[in-house]
Amino acid sequence: MKKNLYNDSQKALKAYNKMESYRIQEDILQRLVKEYPDHKNKAAVEVKVKLLNLLYSTYILATNRMTDHIYEMKKIDSRLKSGDLSLVKEIATLTIDGKSYDFYSFATKYCAYHNPEAFPIYDNIVANVLTQLFVDDNLPPYTYTTKKNVANGYSKSAFQENLRDYDFYVQVYNTFMKEYGLWGKLTYREVDAYLWGAYKVAGPDFEIEKLAPIDKSKIMQVEI
Length: 224
Prior knowledge:
Blueprint (H helix, E strand, L loop, with lengths): L5 H12 L2 H16 L6 H15 L6 H9 L4 H7 L3 H7 E4 L2 E4 L1 H11 L9 H12 L7 E2 L8 E2 L1 H7 L3 H14 L8 H13 L6 H5 L13
Parallel strand pairs: 3-4
Antiparallel strand pairs: 1-2
Helix pairs in contact: 1-11, 2-3, 3-4, 6-7
């Protein structure tokens, strides 16, 4: 195991907890999902979709189409409960006026709010951190290489693209947690909050920032 980041995470989580607007929006969504955990009421599904889209700026203009898309899915409640990772791709893929869209970040967030123990959230901060760790050879067994036929070997662009395959993303996410002493100590949601706290809050550098220095100015606010 490499550097243990647990103490670093606790410091960053304290910083994150001071970000009142984020905590309030999380609390609102959590309360809403707790009140309407299933998908039997279409109006409730629509409110969940629209509120998540608004608070996280996932840029879905046709939220009514996304509502219909999710509401009409078969066995969505049992699949969310069982942690069926393939559900993310199905929710993310939406056709609007004959054009196919991939609302990947939204889909991970939607699933995560319904079952946070099974679905980690994808966003640009996490993806950039994982990619930088990978490029600096700080995320074994994944190897940064331009050579072909290397076990677990990827170019930077290929690794970034593969993070948009949710099965791969979860595997890498779990590897990061295990490699840096967070597995079994933090939940997926806490890891996400840790990285947000470290990279979005002004103040002293955190250990994770030293391990994965990324250009904060290029971190996108809008996820699709």
